[in-house]
Amino acid sequence: MGNLAEKYDLSRFDEDCSELGLVLSEKQKEQLLLYYEMLVEKNKVMNLTAVTEFQDVLLLHYLDSFCLVNLLRPEEKESFLDLGTGAGFPGVPLKILFPACSFTLADSLNKRVNFLQEVIGACGLEDIQAVHGRAEDLARQAQYRQQYTYCLSRAVAPLNILAEYCLPFVKKGGAFISYKSNSIDEEITNAGKAISLCGGKLETVVHYDLPGTDIPRTLVCIRKEKDTPAVYPRKAGTPSKKPL
Hints:
Strands 3-2-1-4-5-7-6 form a seven-stranded mixed sheet, with helices on both faces. By secondary structure, it is α/β, with parallel strands linked by helices. It contains nine helices and seven strands, in the order αααβαβαβαβαβαββα. It has helices at about 10-20, 25-40, 55-65, 90-95, 110-120, 135-140, 160-165, 185-195, 240, and strands spanning about 80-85, 100-105, 130, 150-155, 170-180, 200-210, 215-225. Helix 3 (about 55-65) crosses helix 4 and helix 7 (about 160-165) runs parallel beside helix 8 (about 185-195). Strand 4 (about 150-155), helix 7 and strand 5 form a beta-alpha-beta unit. The mean pLDDT is about 95. The longest helix is centred in the first third of the chain and has 17 residues, at about 25-40. The protein has one domain (about 5-240): Rossmann fold (3-Layer(aba) Sandwich), CATH 3.40.50. The termini are far apart.
């Protein structure tokens, strides 16, 4: 990977990580920087992100992903599914941050999955896979259904739709965690039925600002209490067209 840290100013990033109680190793920084370079290069030929300026990527993608630590510090070997991972957020930064945990990155666009496989190889990441498929289809496969300690979503869909997509992947006792902006009360209320039908229960809502900013963010944690009935998720397209 070389010494990419010499090319970039990471002083603000280090301070912001410290605010989260995090100290990154030189290897972790090199992996994040290589990921950044691959992201902006690939973004020239396919639409991965509208955020490409270096400091903006550090704040709005990397640190935003890291803010999971406002809710939990995962144990070694716990498993994560990043559903609708897109360009790899929050899954890739979290894998770099917590290398002892296993990660599956799932996306419905094969071009993104191919890019993520390149990132995984170039950064030397282990115990992580990128898979192509829609949530409604993957959740019906035994290798994915109710196999994860945590399912993460940083998607823009409302919580009632995300609950039907995400909870079927979570083991009993695990949790679906949604990254959201600040205005979440109405979404939570509207999602009550979907959360309950899919075996979940709202556990906690954590409000915080992105480190070093006044940009509000929220983490919504929904605990998996019961097996998700086999009928959920419904067939492809139905959850978004007819939310529970």
